[in-house]
Amino acid sequence: MADNQLVTLSKEFAVDVIKLCDVMKRRGKATTIINQLLRSGTSIGANIHEANYASSKADFINKFQISLKECYETDYWLDVFYDAGIISKEEYDKAHSQCSKIRTLLIASITTAKNNA
Fold first, then answer.
1. FRET pair for 82, CA 20 to 30 Å: which of 9, 24, 25, 116?
2. pTM higher than 0.85, yes or no?
3. Which CATH architecture has domain 2-116?
4. Those residues with Cβ within 8 angstroms of residue 10's Cβ, 6 or more apart along the chain or in another chain
5. What are phi and psi of 28, to 5 degrees?
6. Tens of pLDDT along the chain (117 residues)?
7. Which residues lie below 8 Å from residue 85, measured CB to CB, with a gap of 6+?
8. What is the residue extent of each domain of the chain?
């Protein structure tokens, strides 16, 4: 159940990150580092999706741990863009909330998978 929710949430988040990065590019702000957010924000879901085809329990856990790292990186970039005044509070709050929810689910899933290993 949580895995399906993670897939759905992370895909929705990736789409929202793509749209946010597009908005920032059109504003002409921080164009050289926007790709950092774009890469990390879309990598979360890609690794979660890839985990569904893991070759072992260890591979599954590893993919989720990579997704978790990408969540932390994405959160960092959101903080930077917000603190620099490049994204609004509303844009930040929405993206940060989505990222936090995914992170919480990832931590719970990793813990469960490790306990069942």
1. 9
2. yes
3. Up-down Bundle (1.20)
4. 44, 45, 48, 49, 67, 102
5. 75, 25
6. 455 899 999 999 999 999 999 999 999 978 889 999 999 999 999 999 999 899 999 999 999 999 999 999 999 999 999 999 999 999 999 999 999 999 999 999 999 999 987
7. none
8. 2-116
